[in-house]
């Protein structure tokens, strides 16, 4: 059967037909998608409270509409990644229940008892388990899909399986290209435009350095990366962290995932400068955020190295001094990608509610300029930082 | 029809059946393969003198025998690469006449009026057109299959098309791993063994640096590289240069092809220290060799940059200063790969007749030690050389 678009009724029928639920009696379905690319239904048995999520790819970019077509094969990518994640790090991703590549849909564990981390952070929610959980996710997925662990053959098969042309192109354009010139895809706060035109778009050194990062993204097939690991791709609670939306996954630079999540936390940090909130509460939340980033990164490096010591099957990975060099490069690239993410989220196509929630456009502009300036500093100085504390100190010094 | 192994009679029948020749009358066939992996027949119409080459992959590594099985899909890789080369740089590769993926065979232009460059160089043959021709081949194939020129989609399709698991693995093992320890695959001059055991295999810094080069080879999908560009993969005459045997092709680091051909010329340069030959002739030939290398590399860089200026469609490639940085990295990696190739050819599985032709094992050992020492210097100092002249000067200073 060919592709057809689900609605709430069809979603229920489909799940019963495929044995996910025994019968349609008492089932309810609700479309809750707020991403850019998909329909998302929560289907629930009101009697037992059992529920699942059915996610179906739309053949266009939802936020733009049918004028931007997009192949629906990305659900195959997401299902493939989720299978690997279910195997490598089952605690920190939704359980994959069912996949149908023809319909471009996957059925997975319902995580709606948790809140999207981005929304929680806008309300100053704290996530004490997040550094522990996310660092394990990163260390395990990035190490065990790399040449350090996999055989040459297994690794190359992953490269072929995750070619993911269209979604990589979105990142290449929207993160590494369009924010650096006056592209149609940009979404520009009118108060920010003068700064972009007079200052930001004239920074040729920055454009060169970002182009190097883009080239890394396009050529370095290191690990299976999630590819879109921002705070809107994470459901979190006090003791739970679930990373989803892996449709951008491909074999790319490991630092991209690490830098992207850190960059999104920095965005939240900086966003408070534009908000009317008790300064003491802001101060407290900001310390929490920097501590979170530091712990996340420290745990990640520790666990990645532990994996390496335990399971580096590639004998070259055991050459003396090689791992240190690898970890240094990984850190440098992480800071670069982190900066690129901070920049794209200020005036690129997809922005963060952390900042767009600031209704006063002048205040929003001031936050955005800070983001651009700090993003630039991170990228330009990425080779000079010795550790993440030096980066968080820079952020702290520049923001109040 | 499934795979069957060709012989001279079957090769003639096949070519007539597929219209390459009109009739079998007057056709002769001769098996001339001296590579490691294939059968090669020259089939000739004695009346017209027309001839073609039919190359068929064997399902094992020929030099080792049936105990080392190898899938025959590599001919598909070679045919795919040859199609691209026929398009990009038709003057410097054999013309592809026919392919049969089921039989793992290709039929191509017969180049047997030319000599294998390695054999010619062992006889001090000079190739005045080689730098001009080979630099065009390198500049055009490496630029026009890169992200600088191709669309993101076209490039990623090439990555998928040239996954080439088995032949990449051969390089990973035989070039970047086995020569650095006492591996069974090595083929060691008994007079060299003490040096390997007491000196060479203890060099942990070298092993670390080679591991970095190996990782580049495994992860950096920059351009469609030939993958085995030594002097035994080139037919050359006074005014002709034809590069063949592209079965190792895949999307890898561009510097690998450049470094490999330069390394093979350096091997010939150093080999003369072990030969009884008129010192004046040696001196003259050696100047020719270094001049060849310098011109090859200078022309390559010039043409690559010309292609870039003319045809870099990726706007990021036009960022100010970006190309210079790219060319610097390309040069550094070239010297690294060049050194690795010099090392692997001294005691790895596949060696060069330039050196194995030295029958006195002690003299051969002395040449091999020079090769190892210089290969190491190139790898360890690859970040410090400013240009190829500094490298050729080093070679010159160390060899008489």
TrEMBL record, chains A, B:
SUPFAM superfamilies documented for this protein: Protein kinase-like (PK-like)
Domain called Aminoglycoside phosphotransferase: residue spans: 29-268
E.C. number(s) listed in UniProt: 2.7.1.100
One GO BP: methionine biosynthetic process
Pfam annotation, one family: APH
Enzyme's top EC category: transferase
Alphabetical keyword list: ATP-binding, Kinase, Nucleotide-binding, Transferase
Alphabetized GO MF terms: ATP binding; S-methyl-5-thioribose kinase activity
Subunit-level organization: Homodimer.
Sequence similarity: Belongs to the methylthioribose kinase family.
Name assigned to this protein: S-methyl-5-thioribose kinase
Organism of provenance: Alkaliphilus pronyensis
Gene for this chain: mtnK
């Amino acid at each position: 059967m060919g592709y057809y678009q689900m609605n709430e009724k069809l979603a229920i029928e489909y799940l019963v037909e495929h044995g996910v639920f025994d019968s349609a009696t008492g089932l309810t379905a609700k479309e809750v998608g707020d991403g850019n690319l998909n329909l998302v239904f929560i289907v629930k048995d009101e009697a037992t409270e059992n529920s699942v999520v059915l996610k179906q790819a739309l053949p266009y970019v939802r936020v733009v509409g049918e004028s931007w077509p997009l192949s629906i094969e990305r659900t195959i990518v997401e299902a493939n990644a989720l299978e690997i994640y279910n195997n490598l790090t089952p605690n920190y991703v939704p359980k994959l229940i069912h996949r149908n590549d023809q319909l471009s849909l996957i059925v997975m564990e319902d995580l709606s008892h948790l809140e999207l981390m981005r929304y929680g952070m806008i309300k100053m929610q704290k996530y004490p388990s997040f550094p522990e959980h996310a660092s394990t996710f990163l260390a395990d997925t990035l190490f065990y899909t790399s040449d350090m662990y996999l055989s040459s053959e297994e690794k190359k098969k992953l490269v072929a399986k995750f070619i993911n042309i269209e979604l990589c192109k979105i990142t290449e354009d929207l993160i590494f290209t369009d924010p650096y010139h006056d592209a149609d895809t940009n979404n520009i706060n009118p108060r920010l435009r003068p700064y972009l035109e007079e200052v930001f778009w004239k920074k040729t050194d920055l454009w060169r350095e970002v182009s190097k990062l883009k080239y890394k993204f396009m050529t370095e097939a290191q690990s299976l990366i999630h590819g879109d690991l921002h705070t809107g791709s994470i459901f979190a609670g006090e003791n739970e962290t679930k990373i989803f939306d892996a449709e951008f996954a491909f074999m790319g630079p490991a630092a991209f995932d690490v830098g992207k999540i850190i960059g999104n936390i920095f965005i939240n940090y900086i966003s408070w400068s534009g908000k009317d909130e008790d300064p003491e509460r802001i101060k407290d939340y900001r310390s929490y955020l920097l501590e979170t980033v530091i712990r996340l990164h420290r745990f990640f490096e520790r666990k990645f190295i532990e994996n390496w010591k335990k399971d580096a099957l590639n004998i070259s990975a055991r050459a003396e001094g090689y791992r240190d060099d690898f970890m240094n490069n990984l850190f440098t690239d992480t800071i670069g990608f982190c900066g690129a993410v901070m920049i794209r989220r200020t005036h690129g196509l997809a922005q963060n509610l952390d900042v767009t929630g600031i209704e006063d456009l002048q205040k929003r502009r001031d936050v955005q300029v800070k983001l651009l300036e700090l993003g630039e500093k991170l990228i330009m100085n990425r080779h000079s930082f010795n550790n993440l504390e030096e980066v968080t100190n820079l952020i702290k010094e520049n923001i109040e």
